[in-house]
Amino acid sequence: MTGSRAAPWLQFVRVALARHRRTAVACALVMIAAAVATRWVRPPIYRAGAELCVLEPTTVHRLANPFAAVPSQTQAVYGLSEELTSRDRLVAYVKGTGLIDQWFLNRPAPLKLKDQLLALVRGPMPEKDVLEGLVATLEKKLQVTVDGDHVFVAVEWNTADGAYNLVRAVVAAIHEHRETHEVEALEQAATSLEEQLAGVRAEMKSGVETIVLEYARARAEHRLAQIEGHEQQFLRDQTRAAELLVRSEEKRISAQVMRRTNAMRFVMLRKPSLPRVPVEADGWLALTLLALGAAGAGLAGALTLAFASGRVLSGAQLEYHLGVKVYGALRGGDVELADSARRLPPGLAVALPLAAVTGICWAVWPPAPFFTLLPLIAAAGLWAVWKLPLKWPLLVLLVLAVTLDDPSDRPYVHLWSSPLYEPGHFFFTNVAWFTGFELCLLALAALMLVRRVLTAKTRWPIDPVGYGGPRVLRLALFLSAATVLGLIVLGIARGGNFREALWQFRSLLFMPLTATLALYAFDFPSDLKLVVRVLAFGSVVKTLLGAYFMLAIAKPRGLDPAHTTGHNDTMIFVMAASVALLLVWERPRWKHVAVALVWLAMVFVAMVFNDRRIAYVDLAFVALVVFSISPRHAAKRFVIRAAVVMTPVMLLYGAAGWNSRGGSLFKPVAKVRSIIAPAEETEEESSNIERDIENFNILRSWQRHMFIGQGFGSAFDQVLPSNDFSQSNFGHIGHNSVLWLMWIGGTLGFTGVLLYLAVAAFALGRTLKVTTDWRERVALLSAVAIFVTYLMQAFGDMGMLSIQFVFFVSVGVAIVGRLSVRKGVMRAAAIAPSRNLFGAEGTAAAPPSAV
Amino acid sequence: MLSVCFSLIGLPLWAANDSHPRRGLKKALIWVVIFNLFYVFLLRVVVPRLG
């Protein structure tokens, strides 16, 4: 916000504080009182921890069992964290440490009171419920982290003994881990081999008996014994028996070595110790936060009252309501002040609870500044969402979508947690049936509906001109949502599981909703710059984080991870590169060439680090589509000439590097080959074979209902066994989302779900013909790039299941929809004037030739 | 992949060249549906016969 814009608001804040100073002081006092009271009743928190280093004694393994494979270092800690925090383990910790007996004694006073009141109504709480409660608490309070060969255990509990005993129980469980898993698995394998051996030996015995019998018969009948087949079978059985014996012995020896060396594997770096004092925030930090919280609560109280009173306090309010500039200061009389003090406006009903909640947050989470100020930030955010145009919260969500790490996407191969990892948990994983992003989108959709109802008759609606873009496009989006809902009903009726269906349909269902929101909220071309800035910001953040991970974390450890940031970030890099190239394509000026070079260099580094082959295919397809729909302008002529000149050189280069192994000169050729025709026995070929098996399985499943599909909630058949069936969530998700959607929806469902893309492409084609401004052409071609990349990602790697793609495609649909209406190609449903916080805009009329 | 891009992007872009906007839109939608049905026919009838 510029200085001239900020000044009226600062004036409003100053006057509001002056008018409602008693309320401000009251709110600050309420905050402090709530903080002190909560601090008094809150139970103390004791923290205990331990650190172990797990080292596999490989020399002992080699010496004891030279022919068996030596267990790797990663094998020793594989699945350790999940195992130690599993429900069975948690129940064992609770029972083993006697927490059930101490449960009532250690309850905080308010909860004790609640228990006593409930006991009067329902009777005493059964032990089963106590156990469940303790397990649920422990699940939140126990942390087991594995970093390389180090295992960290940390527990926070309301008693020192409890925390200490729990850590000891976890450390004991780590020691048992091998016994219960690897040793048992080896012994079971050995037993199985021995059973097979016994079977082979029985067959050999039976064979010998048959041979002896045949000899006896032959002697009695004076003929030669016919034992050739039996003899060969006996020899084969003998070889097989020897092989089984060796393998079972190897397993037994490995199990013994593992059992004997188990104690040698653990080096206790930090022993569990009894915590002496509870965890508290640093004194100065706690006091500073308390002061900050009190000041914030006072300010929030004064502002809430100023808004709720409905009185005009400053020029900024007049400017907001009238849309005209106000010069000079407003003056209020004593009578007005007395009136406002005597009345108890409804604002107090918001201000005082807000101050109390802020105080409680300070006391409950003393070491985390963010949580102390969370209620105030949330209240300010809600107010802003209510008052500002919808594009701002939508842009904030877009910024979060392109910057936060998606924990389900294995960012940084789980070797490093960036600062954007923890917030990503809220936005990308389930909070209450839906993820944080989905809940935010639902809230914004509700706000959009409220505004459409409330502001339809007002003179100055908050959001921009028009109600949601072209009518045809909105109908296609509605059809998409209706088809998804229909497929959910169909799938459940066919015996599908709703819980699995939820993971399958969520992104497809949120696509039309988000696109409708974007069509309603954005006003292109005026908002183009904002969207491009968000994209640039996201690509810079991801590039810097990816580079830091590779250069500071992976390389020093000698690791070569499969990717850096995440799978879905490919879209960010491809779009950033596409926009950079489209700038030059539509407006070939030196300035744009310079911008594109800088941007491309940065994005190229990110793409190399992220190492996703599909990103290059995306770029190639985008280039092909943009080239074919562009008129023969200067850049296109230049590209055609350059292609003619360079074709022989490129062919020679490709031929020379086709069979090259290693070397940076022919790396691009190797990358192209790994996509088109991967060399045998490479990771790429193995990956392609697995995808082919999965596609075959989906195709065979699709054949049952080719027209209306299976519906959501089911798994596809595993006709051919796949090595990575778990990666497809056991048949519920296909890497090839296009084929997967055809199986789910059949041809009709597939068409219904994605028809909006066809309508958008049609609108885009017509709009492009009448658009001459290079900025608008870049925006339209960027929308093409988004659609093509989305389909490519859907085809290549689960693109239809990612919320990032939902945001990108929605922005693409909004660009096409808004520009097509503005250019008179498509007809909007309704027209209304718009206004932002500081001014008004005109109206747009639908031309008669629009669809 | 090419079929999907052709069906959902290529055909509507081609139909956008029609001089009459409403006729162009109808053409785009009908051709997308026809193409998808034809795709199923190919998969169901032609591809199995090719072995």
Characterization of the model:
The complex is a heterodimer of chains A (851) and B (51). Chain A has 31 helices and eight strands. With 851 residues, chain A is mostly helical. Chain A has three domains: 145 residues, no CATH class; 225 residues, Bacterial polysaccharide co-polymerase-like (2-Layer Sandwich), CATH 3.30.1890; 377 residues, no CATH class. In chain A, strands 2-3-1-4 form a four-stranded antiparallel beta sheet. With 51 residues, chain B is mostly helical. Chain B is elongated. The model of chain B has no long low-confidence stretch (mean pLDDT 85). The interface between A and B is medium-sized, with 35 and 27 residues.
Descriptive keywords:
heterodimer; A: 851 residues; mainly alpha; Bacterial polysaccharide co-polymerase-like; 3 domains; 4-stranded antiparallel sheet; two-stranded antiparallel ribbon; globular; B: 51 residues; 2 helices; elongated
Give the number of domains of chain A.
3
Oligomer: heterodimer
Largest sheet of chain B: none
The major sheet of chain A is characterized as: 4 strands, antiparallel
Terminal-residue CA separation of chain B: 21 Å
Largest interface: A-B, 35 and 27 residues
The count of helical stretches of chain B stands at: 2
What is the domain total for the residues of chain B? 1
Question: What is the alpha-carbon Rg of chain A in Å?
Answer: 34 Å
Which percent bin holds the helix content of chain B? over 70%
Please count the beta strands of chain B (DSSP E, at least 2 residues each): 0
The average pLDDT value of chain B, as a whole number, equals 85
The ordered string of helix (H) and strand (E) elements of chain B is: HH
First-residue to last-residue Cα separation of chain A: 40 Å
Mean pLDDT metric of chain A: 81
